[in-house]
Each structure stands twice: as C-alpha cells, then as structure tokens.
C-alpha cells in the first residue's frame, strides 16, 4: 500500500478516484479531527462502505459501522490508497517494466520517447512516484 503522503500528493496532482469494491482509503477531514481517525484505513465494500453517486458528487456511505457516528463522507474528504495493480493500470501504455534490484524496486515508464526510472524499497511507492510524474507532465 502506498504511503498517505504519496496518496495526498497524487490527489493534489489531480488523480481522479472512482470508488469500487475493495478500494482502500483514509479520511482527510478538517484540522479539528483527531489524527488517529485519519490514520484508520477503510475498505469500500457493499457490506460496510458503499460508494453512492449523487447529482452533487460521490459520497462514501458507512453502513452499520459502530466505531463512529459517521453516516457518510464526500469523496473530497477521502484519500484513495491505490493498490499496486491499480497504479500500474493508471500508468497505462507508459509502463515499461518493474525490476527487482538488490534493495529496491525500479519502475520504468516512457513518455514521449524518454524513459524514466523510479526506485523505492516498496514497489507500490515506485509505481506511485512514476504516476505522479505522469500526471505532472500531462497538465
């Protein structure tokens, strides 16, 4: 799973999330909310957390949860934590390879004929950093 910091960077860069069953996220609420609430990782599931599309936007509904008195939050109050396979899919045709190095993973992408490599000890973070580059170049 990618770090919250990278997930927030991807969100600020413009990564669009269309919640689906199995997606993980954290809350990104006002400063007055305790940090421990934002540290919890939630999973979208028809059983407990459903994604509802409304005319005003997407909300995440908490069905039957007893931990808090939360009914729902807007998608803007959530930080998506994409999985490795989702990050690879978001790189689309720019993705070239994932290599295992001695102490890290290296993701290679190609944009406009230029090959770029991104290393990190966690493969998901390497994919996420590559995606952040791709989003930045497409703006």
From TrEMBL:
According to the lineage, what is the superkingdom? Bacteria
Its name, as the record gives it, is: Pilus assembly protein CpaE
Q: Which organism is it from?
A: Agromyces agglutinans
